[in-house]
Structures are given as structure tokens and as C-alpha cells.
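Let us work through a complete example step by step.
Step 1: write down the sequence.
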Amino acid sequence: MKVLIVMKHRFGLWSAPDWFLEKLREEFPEDEFVYHHDYAGIEADLKDAEVAMTWSLNAEQIKAAPRLRWIHSTAAAVHQLLIPEILNSRITLTNASSVHGPVVAEHVLALMFALAKRLPTAFRMQQRHEWGQERMTEEQPPLRELRDATLGIVGVGSIGGEVAKIASAMGMRVIGVRANPMKGVDWVPANDPLRAQHRVFGPKDIDRMLSDADFVVISAPVTSSTTHLIGARALAAMKPDAYVINVARGALIDESALVEALRQRKIGGAALDVFEHEPLPPDSPLWDMDNVIITPHQGGISHRLWERQFQLFSENLRRFEMGAPLIGLVDKKAGY
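Step 2: predict the structure and record it as C-alpha cells.
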């Protein structure tokens, strides 16, 4: 079986290291692995490839791949692969949500603690050699505890589900919005005596969730129904001292509406790891806002990234060859 790996990204860490290919060849000696650092000339290898590990393929490349049966994305988001030629084909699509979920969840918790304890303000005072204890207690929003606070999660999937598990174990009340609310509160055991305090809403009731949350985590996939899901109306539904944290994709938040809400102090603040345009332009007003934490799309970065990617892809390759169910299977119609 021929496996084509095409990894091209401006950020070097997203490209598979040399050992990745070498280890695949060691563990699967009967398979052929071809690695391209860019998309130039891949059509020759697509002609007889049955598996592709890549960020994206266009319509012409799919047409050049009559034997292609499975595409694996090393990202969690796969919207760039949801083109008609793939949607209308029998090609199976998987993602790396199980790789990124636990790592991004850690980043969410770090941002949530930083917001609750107003660490950016403390860091700025440190740079000025300012002892600001009184200022920290007098200014709004107040220093707060996470225990007993209400966490709202938009998209209780691989990332949101991990956040929900950790937050509920910390004593937070978790309320989530999910496409299928019938899945219920699956982040705590059925016999948990505090399970009744957690709740799930459907997409139509997102404003009810937003109005009750002290922290709102955006971790839903990008689809036609989630683009700019958090706009002026949703932001207006939030508490004036609530925080929004986005670790999904920038397209889920209407950035101009968010900037306006932050300027007018209609919400407590924001922590953003993703943006509508990346890298975030130098002239973005978000850079200079004292109620915003910016991280450069680092939520999924870990020193174990490619170790975890290898574990997933090699396990799925074994399953694919045996005809067993794959991990991270994407519902192409749903978009995630």
C-alpha cells in the first residue's frame, strides 16, 4: 500500500520531522511511504496512493487520485478538506482531535487562571516596579476564584470535553452548548452526586448559556452555522464581568464586534489564541487592549506533538489495513 505524506506550513513545527517517516517505514516495512515537503508534483504519487496524510488537497489533486481511500489531517479542524470532490466521494476522512484535545485543554486552563487572577495586570506592574495590591483589589473585574464559578463551553468535543472534565473536577459548574444536546453531561460519571448542577443546551439556546457563564470557552468546529457565532448579540448576552476564551478558530468570533465590546467594557475581557487573520496584523487594536490576552495560536503546541501524532497515525494505519474502525473519523456532512 502506498501512503503519501504532504506537509507544508509556514510554521516549521507543523511539518513532520525526519524520524516520523523513518519510524513508519520501520513499523510498516511492506508499505511504501512518500514524503513531499510541498505540493509541487504530487500528482505523480497521487495516482497510486491509497492513503494521504496532509492539510489539504484541491479538486484537481483529488481527480488525480483514483485509488485514494483515506485522508488523515494532522489538525483538528478539517474545513479546508471539505470540498465537493471529497464530500461526494467514498474517501474516509480523519483528524487529529485526540492529539490536540488534551493539550489545548491545558492551554484553556492556563488562560482561565490568568484571567481570574488578572496575571497580565500583575506582570505589567512588575515591569514598572509597582506594588499594586490595592489597585488589584479596587479595579474591575475583581480577582476571583474558579471554584464554584460557572464555565460555559461552546462545543463539547475533543477540546471542550477535556476542559469540562478538568473544570468540573476543580469544582466549577459546567454548562455546555453542543450540536446534539441529547449526548448530555458526559464529562462526569453518571453516579457523581454533583452531576445535576451541570447542564447542556442546544445551539438555539446559546444565549441562555452565555448569560449564565462567568467564563465562556469557544471550542467548536468551523461550519457554516458556527462562523461568527459569537457576534454582537452573543456578546451582549454575556455578563459584564465574564470572559471569553477562543481556542477554536478565529472565524467563530466576529472580531470587530468583540473589539467594540472590549472597548466599551461590556464584558470582563478575552483570551484569544486564534484570530480571523493569522498572524494577527500589527495594527490590530487587540494588541494594545489591557483586557485582552493574546497567544500566537500555540494551544496545540507541545514537546510531545509528533510523538502523539505518530501514535495516532500508526494505530489508524494498522486499523485501516485490518478494516477496523478508525480513530478521529470525521462526519463529512456535519463538517467535524
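Step 3: interpret the result. The two ends are 27 Å apart (CA to CA).
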